[in-house]
Amino acid sequence: MALERVLLPEWTPQWGVLLAWPHADTDWCDLLDDAEATYVALACAILARQHLRVICRDAEHSAHIRTLLTQAGAELARLELLERPYNDTWARDFGPIAVTENGALTLQDWRFNGWGGKFAADADDALNQQLPWDVPLRRFDLILEGGAIDTDGRGNLLTTSNCLLNPNRNPQLDRAAVEAQLKEAFGLRNIWWLEHGYLEGDDTDAHVDTLARFCDERTIAYVQCTDRDDVHYTELRAMEQELEQLAAREQLKLVPLPMTPPLFDDDGARMPATYANFLIINGAVLVPTYGCDTDAAALAQLDAAFPNHDVIGIHCLPLIVQHGSLHCVTMQLPTGSVPV
């Protein structure tokens, strides 16, 4: 009997979400209070609807997190705190990726090399193997981050060539070899490559979850740049044209999300603010906001795209100081994946 795999979309019913909490020995040390305020807001929104698995450094850190969430009025009965070693907090890129194999849930553990060797990642790469799961966890040798891919759950994968074909990931593999391995691992029919699109300040080499995302089987939300004077205009307009061609061919609906005005860190470097970095959970969509005039328009667009979900803004300006956002720090865990 042939093995039939299905890569699960984000809207699959969830047990909860995986987070790795920032602490003073991570890159968050200079803005730890602000970062923790974002994590608390995110954790409370998740715990109101489902479970939350938080990775922390030690017993003292665990108690600190529990105190923060208690003070915020979080639903602590759904909270799981686990003490494990980790390098950083970008759970999207080292967390497990969920598939079904002949209908049975399985988690996949892909190699993580710190976005092409840019940052230390040995503990993050080993983390999934140290966590308790209620389903098989299969290790794959290919380097792949969860933020680099998105799926409609019908055998179609959306990704970017700038990331997956970057020689800092799997230099021994060409496009055909990458496609073959992903199709086999995820049971894919099609890989939809975006050849354009990037954000200044992004360390990921153009993760698709910063640019274009499935809202449902037939809808893709994407970052639209309409300012011809913006440095992103040419690339994002080219990406938009690629998506328009894809939508016409596959009968998809496109939902444009506004580009934030330029946001800069204290050193004057532009930060990669994006509304495409939302997280779908049970009954809600958590959307990063940045204190910009464009926040309201982004929330309205996603509210229309998710008529059966509550759309909740989470202030994420502290996250983009470290070059990521809301989706980047989370990984959804489907129902049945975690022991209860």
UniProtKB/TrEMBL annotation:
Which keywords label this protein? Hydrolase
Q: Which Pfam families match?
A: PAD_porph (PF04371)
Q: Which InterPro entries match?
A: Peptidyl-Arg-deiminase_porph
Q: Could you tell me what this protein is called?
A: Agmatine/peptidylarginine deiminase
